[in-house]
Design goal:
7-stranded parallel sheet; Rossmann fold; alpha/beta
Amino acid sequence: MGISLQGLTSIVTGGGQGIGRAIAQVFAAAGSRVLVATRTEKSGAATVDAIRAAGGEAQLLVVDFDSRAASQATIDAAMHHFGQLDVVVHSAAAFPLQRIADLTDEALDTTLTVNLKTAFWLAQLSLPHLTASRQGRLLFTSSVTGPRTAIPGLAHYGASKAGLNGFIRSAALEFAGAGITVNGVEPGLIRTPAIESHTDDARFAQMAAAIPVGRLGDPEDIAEALLFLASAQAKFITGQTIIADGGALLVENPGI
C-alpha cells in the first residue's frame, strides 16, 4: 500500500518552487490538505494551481519568514482554512553566497532567521495544534552542507543547517511526550531552479559524474523521503535526519 496522509493538514514553507513545491505536491497527492506558505505570490499560486488541477486541496499564504509574526501568521492561516494542523514542514531557506571576509550583517541575519530561528518559532507556535493531532509531525529540509560538508561562501548557510540538525534532536526529546515526532532530510545536490539559474549542462554532467547513482537528485527525491517521515509508518522514528545524496558522501575521493 502507498503512503497516505488522508485526513491530515500540512504546512509547507517555501512551497513556491524547487524542493518546497515538490513537497507540497507529493503531500497533496498522498491526501493531505496543504497550506503553501511562500514569499513570492506568482510561484506559490502556480503550486496551488497544480495541486488543485491534480485533484488535491491547497491554499496559498504569501509570507516572508523574517519574524515570529510571520510564523504566527502561517499557523493561523492553516487553522483558518482547515481547522486543524498535523504536519509542519519547514523548507524555506536563504542562502546568499558571500565569503566570510565579505559577509554582511544583513545576509547573516537573514540566513539565520529564515533557516534556523523560524524553525524554533514554527515549532513553538504549532505545538498546541500538533499535540492535539493524532499524527503530529515537525519536519525540516536540512542539508549535507554544514552538518557533513562545506562550501566556500556558504559558511553562514552551513552553520544554520548544522544548528537545525541540533534543534531537531533536542526538539524530538522535548516533544516526544506529546506524541510529536521531529525529523529532517539532508539533501545533497538537487537539481532545482536555483541551481539551474547559474549552472550549464557541462557542469551538471561533471557534478553527476561524482555521484555514485549517476545523477543529481530531483526535488521529488527529497519530498518522498519527507513523506515517509510524515507518515504513520515512521511513527517510531524521531530526532533523525535522512541523508539523500545519491551516495555522494560515500566517496572519499571523486578522482579514484
